[in-house]
């Protein structure tokens, strides 16, 4: 069991100071915003319409479920969050909220979100949400993250489920299109996260987390980023020729994948002397591009869906 589950005494200072902002921070709002956006795209891109009230409720409960995952992740990772510069300001290591309170908060929101999504939409969507929470907390956080450098490769599936959940809300099932949206996020996650790891390596070393940069070094990580980006490109571009794609999506995909491939190539060509000389400027640039990459693809899917009823934008 993680030290985070038993080391509670050191985190119980200043608990009375916890406010709404501290509990909201437990939900990992930045990650939750990506969950909401991709789930919304999955819902709106589906070929079946959803009543606005049902759609709003579904997205709300998906967001709550995503936030619950974040709270449970912070509960489990509290011990390493206290060590890493990037995370030591989070509510638990900062002494605002105890680990027990974070666990209770996360579990309550998890159960509530799954039950309410089932009532608002269907059991397929609720089942996918429940599995997503389980996957992120148990498979990724408790098992993979501290055990294998492939943690983010396999664990990335947790962040890839939201568009499938949104699609299931509308259709009650899974399709090729929803699997493609899942695969797009799944394949994007490793190069996105490894680009971050290249200039955050010391954090993971200090915390003893076996990220690829720690176990295999930055040279191997650069190669992995290039390989995964090459594998990602045909999936992203190929989606243009499905029912959720079209000329608009194709144009966006071609541009973004060309830029992402160039960025991955630039990262691969560099050595550590060059990177340290300019303080990992290229790596940080590619990491920022990776954020826009995913947003651009899903925005294009949303645009295609919005234009479809007017007979515009499709093949």
Automatic annotation (TrEMBL):
GO terms for cellular component: plasma membrane. The keyword Membrane applies. It is a multi-pass membrane protein. Keywords: Cell membrane, Heme biosynthesis, Membrane, Transferase, Transmembrane, Transmembrane helix. CDD domains: PT_UbiA_Cox10. It is found in: Cell membrane. It catalyses: heme b + (2E,6E)-farnesyl diphosphate + H2O = Fe(II)-heme o + diphosphate. Its EC number is 2.5.1.141. Pfam families: UbiA (PF01040). GO terms for biological process: heme O biosynthetic process. The chain crosses the membrane at residues 31-50, 56-76, 97-117, 123-140, 152-174, 180-200, 221-241, 247-265, 286-312. One of its GO terms (molecular function) is protoheme IX farnesyltransferase activity. It is an enzyme of class 2 (transferase). Pathway: Porphyrin-containing compound metabolism; heme O biosynthesis; heme O from protoheme: step 1/1. Interacts with CtaA. Carbon 2 of the heme B porphyrin ring is defined according to the Fischer nomenclature. Converts heme B (protoheme IX) to heme O by substitution of the vinyl group on carbon 2 of heme B porphyrin ring with a hydroxyethyl farnesyl side group. Belongs to the UbiA prenyltransferase family. Protoheme IX farnesyltransferase subfamily. This is Protoheme IX farnesyltransferase. It comes from Roseovarius litorisediminis. The gene is ctaB.
